[in-house]
Amino acid sequence: MTEHDDRIAPPGTAALPADAPMFNAAAWARILPFAAYLFFIVAGDVLERMGVAASTLLWLYPLKIAVVVLLLALFWRQYAELKPFRLSSVQALTALATGVVVLVLWISLDADWMIFGSSAGFDPRGQGGQIDWLLVAIRIFGAALVVPVMEELFWRSFLMRWIAAPNFESVEPSQLGLKSFIISVLLFGFEHNLWLAGIVAGAAYNLLYMRHRTLWSPILAHAVTNGLLGLWVVRTGNWSYW
């Protein structure tokens, strides 16, 4: 026996060579769309500090979504977890209900201690107070249809499984343990300034993924949350939630 023989890998996983890179090609296919999204957030903050007008910065969002869509399309053939679409009627209803519950909690968990930092949000109103409906449409499209796919590929399909084993594609969702669950939930939560709401959402999406063993379940729930949140924001004018 060698000194490595006593290492126990999660069931269904294969050990990687010692000199293997930290992230393989499959990992980068899930990291890059998410990294591009974060890049535009940072770029917007830098440009704002440089004095670029807020009305101009709003158009970074369509550009951001276009870049993410392009990257998702580029790597689409590598996303085996999305092919074929697999979601039973019970799973779909559960995901839909979860998305609604997460939305209610998202707009409720807003006490001062549940928030860190501040968010200017996305205010599509012009100088005259008129809403730019093209920007609203792009924002809801991006939040409801693009972001859920991009984020679930990163947080659930990649990171959650990668924490369990570097050869993450061999890890079944049902095999994920407490370590993967907690780390991914905390990181997902603190990605948002509504950190407690983010933790609750991350836990809900994690449970759907582990229970239903298909990424389409958290994608659907995430899409429902984001889509309804967009409608609520437009209806109430609470632009900071965007």
Structure description:
The protein has 242 residues and is mainly α. It has a domain at 87-241. The chain is built from 8 helices and no strands. It has helices at residues 25-49, 54-57, 60-75, 89-108, 133-164, 178-189, 195-212, 216-236. Residues 1-9 have low confidence and may be disordered.
List key phrases describing it.
242 residues; mainly alpha; 8 helices; 0% strand; disordered N terminus
Summarize the structure.
Residues 136-227 form the CAAX prenyl protease 2/Lysostaphin resistance protein A-like domain. By secondary structure, the protein is mostly helical.
Order of helices and strands: HHHHHHHH
Count the DSSP helices.
Answer: 8
Chain-averaged pLDDT: 91
Question: What is the helical fraction, as a range of percent?
Answer: 55-70%
Question: Structural class, from helix and strand content?
Answer: mainly alpha
Using the alpha-carbon principal axes, give the shape: globular
Number of DSSP strands? 0
Q: Give the distance, in angstroms, between the N- and C-terminal Cα atoms.
A: 56 Å
The radius of gyration is: 19 Å
- Largest beta-sheet details: none
Strand content: under 5%
Low-confidence stretches: 1-9
Architecture blueprint of SSEs:
Blueprint lengths: L24 H25 L4 H4 L2 H16 L13 H20 L24 H32 L13 H12 L5 H18 L3 H21 L6
Helix pairs in contact: 1-3, 1-5, 3-5, 4-7, 4-8, 5-6, 5-8, 6-7, 7-8
